[in-house]
Amino acid sequence: MDIRHLQYFLKAAQYKSFTKAAQSLYITQPTISKMIKSIEEELGVELFNRSGKQVELTDAGQVIFAQAQDIVNSFDNLSTELDDLMNLKRGRISIGLPPMIGSSFFPKVLGKFREQYPDVTIHLVEDGAKKVEADVESGQLDMGVVLSPTNEALFHSFSLVKEKLMVLIHPSHPLAEKEKVTLSELQKEFFVFFRKDFALHDRVIAECVRVGFHPQVIYESSQWDFISEMVAANLGVALLPEPICRELDKERIRVLPLVEPVIPWHLVMIWRKERYLSFAAREWLRFTQDLFRRGHGEDH
């Protein structure tokens, strides 16, 4: 017995006629009669009383009818759920995002995706890039935004944004009137840094060591707005990505290009190789990649 047998049985019970049921199903009357007979033989009971002009359910038939309705309804609901997933009417995506990303251009990307797929739920997890990468690797996240380069053996990726780090200093600082600042000019400064679980933390320290000094870190934070406020209070200098610097109050903070070296801020979307992605997740990747390729994702 399969779901089609039950569907035919329910139609016969509804119309109280094999002929009318067959017509509604666009099959022949012998086909439906044979199908009903097959169920009766399998269960060892008669489902219909065939003695009158109309077929009537027997006691056994009424028991089967109630159960068959639930089974067919469940099957129809399952088909609808799968169709919804296939058509992206529903779904859930988990994305890891460094806090600085969430507060700059990414909300616009999320807004555009939601316009097209309003019933897809996006669960955002804010963490440093190191933690995001680890959670994508373990499967706790479907995908995440991290700093390039990444482990190409583990992850697929595509580029989101290519920018660079800028220097933040107080307007009263002796370097404030310069057009650009080299990293070695900051060797005697106190730094306000991102926490150790942020990829920028290690990246900046490595560059400082490469030019000959180890930075004096006095504060660490996970929030770019707190870091910028520390600079505005003249408590230290900081390095932040260019898109974030565009949002800062230039009267309270001086923002200068960092040179020698230029430290890139290259963001990529990653997802684990050889791991299943839902229809919604795959559409998110396609949508986001297309958006950033056309440049709309970088509309600050």
UniProtKB/TrEMBL annotation:
Transmembrane segments: none annotated. Pfam families: HTH_1, LysR_substrate. It comes from the Bacteria. GO terms for cellular component: cytosol. Residues 1-58 form the HTH lysR-type domain. GO terms for molecular function: DNA binding; DNA-binding transcription factor activity. InterPro entries: HTH-type_LysR_regulators (IPR050950), LysR_HTH_N (IPR000847), LysR_subst-bd (IPR005119), WH-like_DNA-bd_sf (IPR036388), WH_DNA-bd_sf (IPR036390). Keywords: DNA-binding, Transcription, Transcription regulation. Belongs to the LysR transcriptional regulatory family. This is LysR family transcriptional regulator. It comes from Pseudobacillus wudalianchiensis.
